[in-house]
Predict the 3D structure of the following.
Amino acid sequence: MTADHEAAIRAATDALAAAILAAVRAEADSHDAGPEQLLSIDRAAALAGVGRTSIYAAIGAGRLRSVKVGRRRLVPASAIAELAATEQGAHFRPGR
């Protein structure tokens, strides 16, 4: 892989992380009038642009806040924004 190719990939990854962060912040802002929105694992994964396994790995590693409601595990919308901000510029991978 050439340095130019690597730089292009890094720029695209940074742009994607910024877009995800902006989308999550916009969704969180649109719900400021009421209580914070709790997202299903599937919805959290879709917003973060990763799979369910990565979400569960981030929860297990303590990088992503979650709450348990009955038998369901839910993720606060703001937790996805926090994760995107801390992981911006880095690939969101389990175990990292």
Notes: The longest strand covers residues 72-76.
